[in-house]
Amino acid sequence: MEQRGVTVWFTGLSGAGKTTISQVVAERLRSQGYPLEVLDGDIVRTNLTKGLGFSKEDRDENIRRIGFVSHLLTRNGVIVIVSAISPYRAIREEVRARVGSFVEVFVNAPLAVCEERDVKGLYKRARSGEIKQFTGISDPYEPPANPEIECRTDLEDLEESVEKVLSALKEGGYIS
Prior knowledge:
- This protein is α/β, with parallel strands linked by helices.
- The chain has one domain (6-109, 141-168): Rossmann fold.
- Helix content is 44%, strand content 15%.
- It has a 5-stranded parallel β-sheet with strand order 2-3-1-4-5, sandwiched between helices.
- The radius of gyration is 16 Å and the shape is globular.
- 36% of the residues are buried.
């Protein structure tokens, strides 16, 4: 049986839990032998999209580039795990249309919870004005209208969130 590729797109505020959930999902899928690539927003910004800023145009271009790579991998039977804030709904929908096999995971936690979890001090720096155009503080985050999965990381534990993602991939026929 040929492996069906899919892009699993984790979106949400900084500190919501995107990277944590996506890493565990990736570990589980890798341990079962699935062809897999992880595109983490922070890592992509230091390599693929280096030089882009945080204006709306640059953020959209960042997501377009991640989407382009995701599309190439997905059409070749790879499971692509993307973890990126991707704050704007329209660009996420553009990427969804391009990729085709796309599962959106809204990693949802209230802003106050994300700020409590902020190990890098980014929210504090944004609130003090040191960081401009920070999503959730001085720049908007547009939640998905109809995500396939919503992980409420303030209400459920990590294992529950991971199981939601894996179950959706099974139901979609991407994994057995």
